[in-house]
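Minutes, project huddle
Topic: does the predicted pose make sense with pyridoxal-5'-phosphate bound?
PN asked that the exact inputs be recorded in the minutes so nobody has to dig through chat later. Recorded below.
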Amino acid sequence: YAPLAEIDPEVQNIIDKETWRQFSGLELIASENLTSRATMEANGSILTNKYSEGLPGARYYGGNEWVDELEVLCRKRALEAFHLDPSKWGVNVQPYSGSTANFAALTALIQPQDRLMGLGLPDGGHLTHGYYTAKKKMTASSIYFQSFPYGLDPSTQLIDYKGLANQAKIFKPRLIICGASAYPRDWDYAALRAVADENDAFLMADIAHTSGLVAAGELADPFGYCDVVTTTTHKTLRGPRAGLIFFRKDSAKAKDLEKRVNDAVFPACQGGPHNNTIAGIATALLQATQPTWKAYVKQVIANARTLGEELVARGYKLQTNGTDNHLVLWDLRPLGLTGSKLEKLCDFVGITINKNAVSGDASAQVPGGIRLGTSALTSRDLRESDIKLVAEFLHRAVQIALVLQKEAGSKLLKDFVRVATTPEEGKVGHQQVKDLGKE
Ligand code: PLP
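Predicted holo structure (tokens), as shared on screen:
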């Protein structure tokens, strides 16, 4: 029972450095959040010791009395968090991550080599929604299924529902996936259901990014229209890293979704559930049902709107000119900067962001934009006035990036490389960056 710092100071030291990075800088990655101490305690608990293949009441191992109680509690909280009637919806809380949740959902809904359609990756979709390139099928969702992407209307940068309906008439998918990793607007689930019904297809929503907002009732509700809804638990939902699969018990298309989903998770795609993670999910879901949750989510959205408005006020271009949710997509192409350059520069100055494709990019491999999200900073209680300052820091970073781009190899570049490599230098670095920003 000796503590980590005593048994393994090397790992402890890495954790200390990462803790410093997370809390000394500005975390703007839209898929990340800062989970609560309570959730981390549950996630780091002795529940990690237990094997429990199977489902509550039907396990392949003994000793699962308390684990059964935990999984039943977690399921109950998951249904409560999304305001679902347990006679109409069920949930599997065992997926290890969003990607495995999605692959298990595909396994449950369709047969190998059946056809599916998902939002294309360059338009904001996720790898697990059927992504492939002209050269390679590199995701399981395109290797084991035939996939075809739908996209955005280039004039509005919104989902092209008409285009999807036309493509679906030709492609005849068995499954339509909606949901995205980088789409700043809400979804029209009724329109998607209509396309699915026209083609006798299942409709699945992957709300990995927006599930916290959906739970708070701040975005359209996919549950009224979809057969299956998947989500990660660690993004806007602020839980540990894992996934959930909700299935409709009264789907008009299949009455046996409960069995199909449960069998697809185990034994088709996974082994023993990570019970410590399920405990963390349960705690996070409890927090998402508290009255404070709605206030948190409203602030996430208000912060994202403010961030967008502040960038637009400084002359920058955003995809769809703004946002309905927790993220903004910043189009850097008019500046002649790539997303990766700004991402690297921001790393030096303690602002964590990620490069992202923007609509119209020639290749998802050289993204012309940046995705920014406000979930983590809102978890640190930043408000609109703070976010205005964050926008100003980003603006200065762009100005510096433009100078560096012109004068690569200059003294300025060396200064940046020196910054933020260790906690001590990083602290000094922040002052240097402020000074350089003034220059
Ligand atoms: N689905 C969407 C929409 C995502 O954005 C992501 C991750 O970013 C995933 C699924 C995959 O989640 P994970 O990284 O937990 O496998």
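Observations noted during the meeting:
- The radius of gyration is 22 Å.
- DSSP finds 17 helices and 15 strands in the chain.
No decisions taken; revisit at the next huddle.
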